[in-house]
Amino acid sequence: MKRFAAVALAAVLVISIVSGCGGSKSTGSVGTNPDKPVTITYARGKDTTPAHDALMEAFQKKYTNIKIKYVEMPAGSDVQHDDYVTKLSAGDTSVDVFTIDIIWPPEFGAAKWTLPLDEYFTKAEQDKFLPGPLAGNKWEGKLYSIPFYTDAGLLFYRKDILDKYGKKPPKTWDEVISLSKELVGKDGIEMGITFQGNQYEGLVCDVLEIMRGNGGDVLDGKKVVINSANNVEAIKIMRSLVEQKIAPEGVTTYKEAESLRPFLEGKSLFMRNWPYAWAQAQNSAESKIKNKVGVVSVPIGPKGSKPSATLGGWNIAINGNIPKDRKDAAVTFAKWMTSDEAEKINALIGSRLPTRKALYEDADVLKANPHWKDFYSVFVNATPRPIYPSYPKISDAMQINVHKAITGQITAEEAVKNMQDAIAKIVK
Length: 428
Prior knowledge:
Elements: H1 2-19, E1 38-45, H2 51-62, E2 66-73, H3 77-89, E3 97-101, H4 105-110, H5 123-126, H6 131-136, E4 138-139, E5 142-143, E6 146-152, E7 154-158, H7 159-164, H8 173-183, E8 191-194, H9 201-212, E9 219-220, E10 223-224, H10 229-243, H11 256-264, E11 268-273, H12 276-283, E12 293-296, E13 311-318, H13 324-337, H14 340-350, H15 363-368, H16 372-380, H17 391-406, H18 412-427
């Protein structure tokens, strides 16, 4: 009942937002002629929340001359990517505006599949977005898409247990290990931490947080710098979580759902996961830890100076092949979908994390999602995955070698050397 009440409250707030923004006439558009209606096609993956419908309704009330034809894409990010690549590389114009994963903008921008947006978003406007998501939408200094909603890695912990034993949340991986050794076996805790250890994109997100949180990185511009002592140590940290049984035995097969399950069951002291896990801990029927969870930044290593969460999230892009007669309408739609007004609707009804800084201080947003105030410091320092058009190949090289290292098939030193060689060939 509480969830339905929250949605109803959000709907009332959305109505007030829309009605307070100039009524239904087309105002503030970018060159669209209100006397000439135009239809544009918008594609995105299925939204399982009511936010998409609310966004479409709000936009159509404000811009009556622009009609939106919606195309629902498959849920899988990889499937969407391949579909867009096939169409855009052939000059297809069946889709005008579409959402893209945070790891795609360099690839799409370099190929000129998406429209450069700098002339439509001034520097002052760009500065209103969180720096990490904005950086992820650029390639060689140009803006090829604009942040829509964001995501970033967090460390979840059992606040009730740490409080009971007078412990503070860990800031370093050494503290994660020592707290785990001390508290596993007490109060139903069976394991220290769960994370995403399977050989897939999630493993790259996890290891990047440890590498960057230990002063390492993958690329410095276009220079490959992954073969470093800092990164060797980072992989050894991840390996030690497995080797010392701080993490469960099967963690090297875990993705997000498998990482979440033992935490919800009250068996894990810590968990690295995405913000969606907060709502699962608080509201899902299987959760045994409601009101017992805290969140902090992902820990740093001994050579690190500050935490570095890996960015997730989605962005709005415009087809680089778009016909001139639809271009202005598409720009108007893209600007509105990434506006304060739209991101507030997305936050209130969809629980999507905003990319605009101001919404982390918005009273309505914080009333609906009070825990978000704790997320801001993480998101403002979050960093995108290596920005390069061939990122999927870089990811493959990292997945294979990091997984071999944490399962004991190769050493950390061998892993970083292999990755250096493979990524150097990709970048060259």
